[in-house]
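Quick one:
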Amino acid sequence: MIFSLLRINEFIGYCNEIKTYLASTEMEGLQLNAPVEKLNLKLEEALGASNRSRSSQFTLWLHERDHRRDESFVAFRNYMEACTHRKDEALATAADKMCRIIRGHGWSLHAKGVKVQSAKMASLIKELELDENKALITTLTADTWYKDLVDDNAAYNKLNEDRAKAKGNQVDYDTEEVYKALRFACEELFDTIEVLNRISPNGKYVEIANFINGCTQKYMTAARTRRTKSENANSTLEENEA
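Output:
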């Protein structure tokens, strides 16, 4: 099999299908325990290396969540500032108090570094959660604005915690070496099945080989179809540019 045609996620999926099949197969007397265990080990390492790439995705998600909480903070802050200009003196006074609270934690706290911002947001929300301040928020009909502020900040914090947990579970892999080792483990298993069936023919070896061949054909067909589509798209692009 030409493994190079497969993308990393496809290669891992291919190996995982074989692993799942072998786990459900009676292996007694087949002398395949060692190569199967090696395949399982190398597949776990490849999955670990693959999951590490999620860190870049977390960075993107965090950027989006941080922007969202910035927007919610600015919306809440600006609404309070606007209310200080209300004709109703009681409302204007309530809004002025709210603005003084916000200034106490940082009128432009959203422009700070994410760690500083998170700390200041936490202290701001803690103060706003006091009954007297929540009453002012309700008086100013700003409950929805405040809920957005709290929810969007919580969403950012939760995602940041998830990223920290993911990092804590990571092992430092040499990605290329890991995938190469998995490829060798596959080839070793396939070669072992062929040799053992030649030395001591067994219908179970044939069943396993047939499954692997079918799985191989499925993934190779998908890979070749994708490559053909890509080549056709590039050819069309070149013709249009000519």
